[in-house]
Amino acid sequence: MRTDTSPTIYRKDYTPPAYWVRTVEMGFDLEPSATRVATRMTLERNRAGRDRTLTLYGEELELVQIRLNGKALGKNAYALKDGVLRIADAPERVTLEIETLLRPDRNTSLMGLYVSNGNFFTQCEAEGFRKITYFPDRPDVMATYKVMLRADKKKYPVLLSNGNLIEQGDLGDGRHYALWEDPFKKPSYLFALVAGQLVCQEEKIKLKSGREALLQVWVEEGNLDKTQHAMDSLINSIRWDEERFGLELDLDRFMIVAVGDFNMGAMENKGLNIFNTKFVLANPRIATDVDYGNIEAVVGHEYFHNWTGNRVTCRDWFQLSLKEGLTVFRDQEFSADMIGTDSGRAVKRIDDVRVLRQAQFPEDAGPMAHPVRPDSFVEISNFYTVTIYEKGAEVVRMYQTLLGRDGFRKGMDLYFERHDGQAVECDDFRAAMADANGRDLTQFERWYSQAGTPRVVASVAHDAAARTYAITLQQSCPSTPGQKTKQPFHIPVAVGLLGQDGKDLPLKLRGSDLQGTTVVLELTEAQQTFVFDGVADLPVPSLLRNFSAPVVLEYDYRDDELAFLMAHDSDPFNRWEAGQRLALRRLLALTAAVRAGGGMAVDPALGESLRLTLTDDALDPAFREIALTLPSETVIAEQMDVIDPQAIHQARRFLRHALAQALRADLVDAYRNNQTPGAYSPDAVSAGKRALKNLALSYIGELDDAAAHALAQTQCDGADNMTDRFAALAALANGSAPGRAAALARFYQDFEDEPLVIDKWFSLQASARTTDVAAVRKLMQHPAFSLKNPNRARSLIFSFCNGNPSQFHAADGSGYDFWAEQVIALDALNPQVAARLARSLDRWRKYAPALRDRMRSALERVAAAPALSKDTKEVVGKSLAAE
């Protein structure tokens, strides 16, 4: 396990702790500038080991005193160095009492105990608990906790911690107390406390077993009108987990608390989930349809952790995806089920895959590439990545694809039966899936141990005389840091065949009893051929249906075949995928033309295919919106050997403008036909109509003429919900409308007291195509901007560096100079946030030489900064060292 004296931690070096902690009692006397923490824990030596040294970790603490079995220890009785406290030759059973002094008001890292807007909050995952007290702060050390909170009653009337409220009362000196007890064993990273001026919405529900539970959503005064959707999402999450997986809430109460200063989206502390306000607060005035969907997903995610993460947790941090990948999959399935329609599920699936391709595929191809179960790390906070979460979810989804929904449920049931209350490994989950279904999943382990995105190349052969159709699949995986060669993966490839009439053919796979119109081929070798019998006429293959594995599929479709799939494929994902492939071909050709200095032209066939989709009223509006959204600049860049951001941007903008011209009448019709009169509702049907309407508006806005300006201005002025108003403002901000500046100013004036909306305002301007570095620097001088708040830093600085590639990658390198300044400034305040910003340049070697040299200089400038945190140092070091 990790110590601060070891720069790199390796999974192979894991050893169980020398001592197990059985019980923890904590007392907090809460004061912003000087909080005292008294901790009493009982420990027992791990009889499986020989180590008699009791090891505890602490950071930024003042150690007041320490007592062992009732006896005060002098400084000669223990060793304290580099944040590690060691007591040699400790007894077999230990009662350890430690008093520490903290200064929460100075804690800008937002890890451990800190103050936000006058209230106390904690964040202990991954290693924040060691900023509260000295402790064996590792996930395999699980104990029960009893926590006493004491504070000034007027300043901090609400005192919350994990589990159930046992007792509360006055102390007689203007102070009061609350005693909380969590009856379930948990690791220290799940500890939480909250204290301050808060109000709550609460509801009581009856669980499936008949027990009653109290649900609470705590927010700052003035935000109660924004909590209903979070409460509804929590109730829906509880009901869904009962029905889908037979898992019930195990506490008497469940609390959600919203805080404006938070490094993450939310945290699943047992019974006391602490959330970024971004994923709690919503009403039609301040939240978009996307916000409503994100809140539902994140509330579900953190609640589902109650079982997949809390009741069964990770043996060590290398197993992080054991809880995160599994729980992301669960929240994806929950969100899809909440939509309820096949088309809606397909749109959700497409959204998830877009995130994977835009964020995780580049990570898999860069210097920070790592397996779903990493082999080493320097700073664990750097491994809360899209690989751990989103690719981890795809790995879990493949179990369901291979075993079926019922088989997956059987595996989940066995997993909990075996491991409830334990800290386990990814291999334990795989074993439960295999044993519950009588399957050999030995090779499937490679999804956990090998980094990189596999490539699957498909080829076909049709024999009309023999009425056979053969699909040959070849797999390979590029080299990644530390892993030059890869063994074949176990890849489920779902396929269908479309006849000449556009309908699915019934499939008979030779040597298998698999039948139906979609079958899952199991690719386990470097090359395999699968033969279908009874195929008289040449079909069009529909490959990797529903994106059945996180791979890059290469098949040489003709343009007419892609258009055919766009029009007929019964698999909605592949119908969308065909359109994306067609559009990506055009975008890459246009980009090449820009780089060659030639003229650009658009093939009318693409416009006609998109017109057919746009005007097909049999398709849900939400699907049409996502089908008409062109591949992002990031996705285009990933297809290029040498990235040219300016050429990509110019090509994509040209295509959007050309499509807007060609489809203008149809876009106007779509805009008019998808209005949602009446009171705002975030339901899937209404949200889908608004999505299509506002996509049409954004295309029309590309024309940048008086009619387009008027349409956007009218919607901006008359919108009764944030979705429509913000979409209209975006259309104005990305063009040359005369009312652009006034619209932005009015938006700020209308919402200056709503921090989450002002985040949107900063983000919109940062990502606008006319915003350069000078404009961002000017926005940083705005009174509403603060580098200390992660949401605000992300809204402006991250949005510019990651969401405005043409301006960030300016030829003069000004974007990279700005990036270096902000990484260094953030690192002094909040290393976690700084390290995430540092990732913006980790693919620097893929760019044209002039940009590449300036990126390297910026990276070297950061690397040379004094007192750089290990969080940022690891990212920058790996970026510079990558081959």
UniProtKB/TrEMBL annotation:
The protein's enzyme class: hydrolase
Domain Peptidase M1 alanyl aminopeptidase Ig-like fold stretches: 452-556
Required co-factors: Zn(2+)
Residues of the Peptidase M1 membrane alanine aminopeptidase domain: 230-447
Domain Peptidase M1 alanyl aminopeptidase C-terminal as annotated: residue spans: 559-881
Gene3D superfamilies to which the protein is assigned, alphabetical: 2.60.40.1840, 3.30.2010.30, Neutral Protease Domain 2, Peptidase M1, alanyl aminopeptidase, C-terminal domain, tricorn interacting facor f3 domain
Domain Aminopeptidase N-like N-terminal: from-to ranges: 92-190
GO terms for MF: alanyl aminopeptidase activity; metallopeptidase activity; zinc ion binding
EC identifiers of the protein: 3.4.11.2
SUPFAM superfamilies attached to this UniProt entry: Leukotriene A4 hydrolase N-terminal domain, Metalloproteases ('zincins'), catalytic domain
Record-level GO BP terms: proteolysis
Pfam families: DUF3458, DUF3458_C, Peptidase_M1, Peptidase_M1_N
Keywords per UniProt: Aminopeptidase, Hydrolase, Metal-binding, Metalloprotease, Protease, Zinc
Catalytic activity entry: Release of an N-terminal amino acid, Xaa-|-Yaa- from a peptide, amide or arylamide. Xaa is preferably Ala, but may be most amino acids including Pro (slow action). When a terminal hydrophobic residue is followed by a prolyl residue, the two may be released as an intact Xaa-Pro dipeptide
PANTHER family: PUROMYCIN-SENSITIVE AMINOPEPTIDASE
NCBIfam families assigned to the protein according to its UniProt record, in alphabetical order: pepN_proteo
Family: Belongs to the peptidase M1 family.
Function of the molecule: Aminopeptidase N is involved in the degradation of intracellular peptides generated by protein breakdown during normal growth as well as in response to nutrient starvation.
Name the record gives this protein: Aminopeptidase N
Gene: pepN
